[in-house]
Design goal:
three-stranded antiparallel sheet, about 140 residues, alpha+beta
């Protein structure tokens, strides 16, 4: 039996009035992260091979996205300053009003209050993504 502590997961989603391809291509571009993902990137992203070096609210982190794909998968691993790697499943889905972006947030190394804060930050990031893309 697995005796690891239970890790809670919650999904945060946002509908964006753009095509799934438009949302995916914008969100997948590392240069765009500071424009919408303030919970991850505070400044321009440095690219080192397949890794992104990011100054985040958590300190400097390393981010690795899955390879570019036609499925709308934006999963990425974030290596925290502690060395812990957090996998973040993200999907861009077709929606009757355009696209829906779905982000799974996991409670790893977070108190309940910190988890709620992170959920709010992800919701804010997805709202910013919507605003940026719908303003274009």
């Amino acid at each position: 039996m697995n005796r690891e502590p239970f890790v809670a997961s919650r999904h945060v989603a946002r509908v964006i009035r753009r095509t799934p391809d438009e949302v995916y291509e914008f969100a997948a571009n590392p240069a765009n992260l500071p424009k919408w993902a303030a919970g991850l990137a505070n400044s321009p992203v440095a690219i080192d091979g397949d890794r992104l070096l990011v100054d985040s609210p958590m300190g400097q982190v390393t981010v690795r996205f899955v390879p570019h794909n036609d499925l709308g998968v934006l999963d990425h691993d974030v290596t925290l300053p502690s060395g812990t790697v957090v996998n973040n499943p993200v999907r861009v889905l077709s929606h009757p009003n355009g696209a829906e972006i779905l982000f799974t947030v996991r409670q790893i190394e977070l108190s309940d209050d910190e988890f709620e804060r992170d959920l709010g930050m992800v919701a804010d990031d997805l709202k910013r993504l919507e605003e940026v893309l719908e303003a274009q």
